[in-house]
Amino acid sequence: SRVIIERSDMYSDVNIAYKAIEPLYTHSLWTLDKAEVRDLIQGLEKNIEKVEVTHLLPNSLKIIITSSPPKYSVDFPGAGRSYLLSANGILIPNRNKESQFPRLQIYSTELMESSFLDYKEAINPTSISKIHDISKVFSVDFSTAVITSEVYYSTENELHILLENGIRILFVLDNSLEKQLLSLKLAIEQTP
To answer: For residue 70, with 0-12 CB atoms within 10 Å meaning exposed, 13-18 middle and 19 or more buried, which class applies?
Structure first.
């Protein structure tokens, strides 16, 4: 029996995928449950979005893994390592220190106390989606505003945006984004 694991992107880690499926090496490859393979890999490497399992003749298995795409480059105060934040809120080690992704600082007591951050959930998927939506609105509706930093506070589930002119805008991600963005637009329209 032989297992081949490949990645379709540069953010997945095949070594972790091989480690994840070790319990299956005692089973027949032909009777493996594809959902079980997926669950084992996603259990250790939570950024994995897609797992394709194909049986190859005579007795081999080919697995292709795909990561949820990164959305942000993440800084942790005092962490000393660089991470990318996937679209599903998972921290991915940044092997390429230069990043084309927007920067997001995360303040999380839980994460700062952890000695191992690789492939941990930093932001829940709903909140990361809202943060991404806010960024899109800023790039379209407030394109003249220059953002100097974006900071996520996990305990409060808030995004703080600091603009070049010193204005700090706070979004409570547990509340309706539409109402908050409408209030912001009205406030800007009323400003002389």
So the answer is: buried
Report how far residue 64's alpha carbon sits from residue 54's, in angstroms, rounded to the nearest whole number. 9
Amino acid at 148: T
Report the candidate in 57, 45, 43, 60 with the shortest Cα–Cα distance to residue 7.
45
Q: Convert the pLDDT of each residue in 100-131 to its tens digit.
A: 899 999 988 888 777 788 888 999 999 999 99
DSSP state letters, 33-88: -HHHHHHHHHHH-TTEEEEEEEEETTTEEEEEEEEPPEEEEEE-TTT-S-EEEETT
Q: Tell the residue number behind the tokens 């921290």, with chain if given.
A: 91
**Residues 42, 16: Cα–Cα separation, whole Å:** 10
This prediction's pTM:
0.84
Q: Which residues contact 15 (CB under 8 A, 6 or more apart)?
A: none
CA dist 186 and 111 (Å) reads 36
